[in-house]
Amino acid sequence: MPSEERPWFDVPLRVRYAETDAQGVVYHANYLVYMEVARSSITRERGFPYQAMEAAGINLVVVDARLRFRAPAGYDDPLVVRVRIRSLRGKVVAFAYRIEHAETGRLLVTGETTHLCVDGSFRPRAIPDEVVRALGC
Q1: What are the percentages of helix, strand and coil residues in the chain, rounded to 5?
Q2: Structural domain span for residue 80
């Protein structure tokens, strides 16, 4: 299924004070944390949480991360982090993200992360079929 046809999985968040910078907006690196929360949520929801993957010797390490900042978010803003699988082939899975203001729908950040599947010794390995099935690809 093409990535643009895959459904989004939504995770609500609220900006905490500690996540803002001196200008009162979300510090840029925190968007990567928000993306991680969404990624963990989608794998958990689909029946193969990160903890289970790691227990099975499956690790998905970030090899690329891209963000595009469109509008700022501030303290106590309600957000929705939308995530979906962009692609999954062989040893690599990519996730796409949209972070929006939950009340206005304003698009704040878009991004994607690419992950390499590795074993416990950090050697690349194919993504196991059970993970592919759980992620709906």
Answers
A1: 25, 40, 35
A2: 3-134
* Tokens (6 digits) for 109: 């950040």
Q: Which residues are catalytic?
A: 21
Q: Supply the CATH number for residue 113's domain.
A: 3.10.129.10
Structure token pair of residue 52: 């289970």
Per-residue pLDDT tens over the stretch 12-36: 999 999 999 999 999 999 999 999 9
> Which residue shows structure tokens 């991360």?
65
Distances in Å between the Cα of 48 and the Cα atoms of 37, 85, 102 are 15, 14, 27
Specify the number of domains making up the chain: 1
Share of the chain above pLDDT 90, in %: 78
